[in-house]
Design brief:
Two copies of one chain form a homodimer.
Chain A: H1 2-12, E1 15-16, H2 17-28, H3 36-48, E2 52-54, E3 74-77, H4 79-90, H5 99-107, H6 114-141, H7 148-178, H8 183-187
Antiparallel strand pairs in A: 1-3, 2-3
Chain A binds a DNA duplex (30 and 30 nucleotides) through helix 3.
DNA sequence: GCCCGATGTATCGCCGCGATATGGTCGGCC
DNA sequence: GGCCGACCATATCGCGGCGATACATCGGGC
């Protein structure tokens, strides 16, 4: 997940770790944290895999040589990195449907192929519906006997999931209006019920 | 987190791993998963720490001897385990405010001291408000220039956090009505603003 | 003159996850 | 009668991410 985020950002412009994290927060907002303990090891990993590369000090001594507080390693995406990014953006697996994964994918949706966008949205919708139905049945079937606090927890969860489904429907409709062909075929649906 | 959940459940009745996970799902619902890869290592860890113990086969051969599908290790909480449970229930640290931690704590709220309940709810409220404010300022300040999908992500997030704050207020009011004294003192508040 | 907070890179151990292996039992279906 | 799939039940492995922590430099406020 962080791999996608880092490659996606570095595809737009070279950056160093600290800046990378600020950008991450700006996009994902307080929705997804990503701590230092995740970021730096990921950068190492990506560098070893040659998906990103450390920029040479470049301007010899000037430019950042004096203004940078500390050494500052600036990374840029490599050709292999771009390939990998396309690969990640093209995937619509289960991990693209869970809370974290979906958020990250959405943050790079404009770079995602329309057909994949649709599959991710539909997949996410199915996932959220499952959760909603689970909560709903717990509340109706065992509504009386469960702990008050647990019930409250399920109530707010149910409300949240219901709203997200409606929100997803709006996004899906929007996508459909953008590219009315191919998307229905891809998901095997002709018309979304409800 | 799983430690609290397991100890909390075993405090109610001895159980084996599979049953434990079903109970977990019943309480936390689809809000918090907890896979096998978390559960069994946790049971090992707790057993090694002597917080839980494996029940002796008990009835010699009868009882579950024939109906059980497989060996089935039944665990029960020990005296140390109960102490540890009280300790965990008495904590109101930062980890009790994040999504996962808060959910688990809430599921065992009826066993949590009233004063601690209050601090957890207030802490969670503060946390959610921070997230809300972050989303809100991003939307208003950089509302025009950010990516459409990112903006949508922030919109739904903002809506969700606003609702959760209101929901928390209801819970807090309820708590306050249960034990009107001590709670305000504990949190240094006299009246919740709005 | 001093401390605080932001900038910046980095590591460590732990927790939880997803995938996977293994195998017993039961009901239903052909 | 035999086979299949669903459920019961335990367990491991590698890895991604987190929180805490360390260390260093700079600008600004008191």
């Amino acid at each position: 997940m962080l791999e996608l985020a880092v490659l996606g950002l570095l595809h737009e412009a070279p950056m160093h770790g600290y800046e990378l994290r600020k950008q991450l927060h700006a996009r994902l907002g307080p929705l997804r944290a990503f701590s230092w303990g995740s970021l730096y090891p990921t950068l190492r990993r990506l560098q070893r895999a040659a998906l990103i590369a450390e920029q040479a000090p470049a301007g010899e001594e000037r430019s950042w040589g004096r203004q940078g507080r500390r050494s500052r390693k600036v990374y840029e995406i490599t050709a292999e990195g771009k390939d990998r990014l396309d690969e990640l953006l093209g995937e619509a697996g289960p991990q693209a449907y869970d809370d974290d994964g979906f958020g990250v994918h959405l943050a790079f949706f404009s770079r995602t192929p329309a057909e994949v966008r649709m599959r991710i949205l539909e997949g996410r919708r199915r996932r959220v519906e499952e959760r909603r139905d689970g909560l709903r049945s717990t509340l109706t079937r065992a509504g009386e006997q469960i702990d008050r606090y647990t019930r409250e927890l399920h109530r707010i969860g149910l409300d949240t999931t219901e709203r997200e489904v409606r929100w997803l429907d709006e996004l899906i409709d929007h996508e459909r209006s953008l590219s009315p062909t191919a998307t229905d075929e891809a998901t095997g649906r002709t018309r979304r019920p409800e």
